[in-house]
Write a structure and sequence with these properties.
Elements lengths: L2 H14 L2 H8 L3 H15 L4 E3 L4 E3 L1 H26 L6 E7 L1 H8 L3 H7 L3 E7 L13 E5 L8 E8 L1 E5 L1 H7 L5 H7 L1 E5 L10 E5 L2 E5 L2 E6 L2 H9 L5 E4 H9 L4 E3 L8 E7 L7 H16 L4
Parallel strand pairs: 3-4, 3-5, 8-11
Antiparallel strand pairs: 1-2, 5-14, 6-14, 7-12, 7-13, 9-10
Helix pairs in contact: 1-2, 1-3, 1-4, 2-3
Length: about 300
């Protein structure tokens, strides 16, 4: 048995749910794919798939084997690609995960430049505000803001994003314009952001000179998605404390009004995070360097 070919066939069938599609992808007769899977099951002494005339699905043993073997094949292909990349431009697939608004407002609009530099790379960008597991989700690197709690990961700092506090003109005309952060605590309603998983709502920190104030405030609505967070502020549901790059287009258009501008908040530190035991491939390296350059050129820091 060609064990490597059998493993490739197994992973392909697991992902496509089809022996026919796998045969076409690997340019093999369907009968050969069937024999490879049978030989692999005999070698492992377990049944990997449930097979019916309509459907192919993983058994419990098959699912556990797929989770590990898919990573092995990824590492195999990455090792081959890195040797090629040493003598040519990086190529292959790069799996990245980042927050919703960072992707849609900052990164994706700038990707034509990245594509011109690295036309042979394929990006798969997972876009969400939820935490991801780099191993389980098979992600090469994640772009995240704030403190990286998992000390087992490597985090490279690439920049920082400043905050702005704002509200719609209609909200301010109804409730007045706060002149001090303590006004937010007593006289206003805030739109709040809570973190997926923990449900935690971080207080808003304001500083001016030696004065430091933490504001929790009252809320009508809290959300765990940055696009929904901005939408709630634009709907006039409360005062919004958000990243400046998200709010600036709406401030320029008059839909939001900045307040408490003489006060500042600690910027959101942005890092690219990856596994410590993972070789930093050429694909990851050029993306990290490009992100650093993108933040250095930005005017929202």
């Amino acid at each position: 048995m060609d064990y490597f070919l059998a493993a490739k066939a197994f992973v392909s069938v697991a992902e496509t749910g089809s022996f026919v599609k796998t045969a076409a992808m690997l340019d093999l007769p369907r009968n050969t794919v069937t024999k490879l899977i049978q030989a692999l099951e005999a070698h492992l002494r377990v049944k990997l798939f449930h097979r019916t005339t309509r459907r192919v699905s993983l058994t419990n043993d098959g699912a556990a084997y797929y989770e590990r073997m898919s990573r092995v094949l990824d590492e195999w292909h990455e090792a081959e690609a890195d040797l090629t990349d040493a003598h040519s431009a990086p190529r292959g697939k790069l799996r990245v995960d980042m927050g919703t608004t960072m992707a849609s407002i900052l990164v994706i609009p700038a990707l034509p430049d990245f594509r011109r530099k690295y036309p042979d790379l394929q990006l798969d960008i997972g876009i969400s505000d939820r935490p991801v597991n780099l191993v389980h989700d098979r992600v090469d690197c994640v772009v995240r803001g704030g403190e990286i709690a998992d000390q087992s990961l490597i985090a490279r700092h690439i920049g920082a994003l400043r905050f702005v506090t704002c509200a719609t003109p209609e909200y301010l005309s109804r409730h007045g314009t706060p002149s001090h952060p303590s006004d937010l605590q007593e006289d206003h309603v805030l739109v709040r952001y809570f973190y997926a998983g923990s449900g935690r709502k971080a207080p808003i920190e304001y500083t001016k000179g030696d004065e430091r104030i933490l504001v929790q405030g009252r809320q009508f609505l809290a959300v765990n998605d940055s696009n929904a967070y901005l939408a709630a502020g634009l709907a006039g549901l409360g005062v919004l404390h958000t990243l400046a790059f998200m709010a600036q287009p709406h401030i320029d258009a008059g839909r939001l009004v900045p307040i408490l501008q003489e006060w500042s908040s600690p910027p959101n530190q942005i890092s690219i995070v990856y596994l410590p035991n993972r070789h930093l491939s050429a694909r990851v390296r050029v993306f990290v360097d490009w992100m650093v350059e993108l933040f250095q050129k930005a005017d929202y820091l």
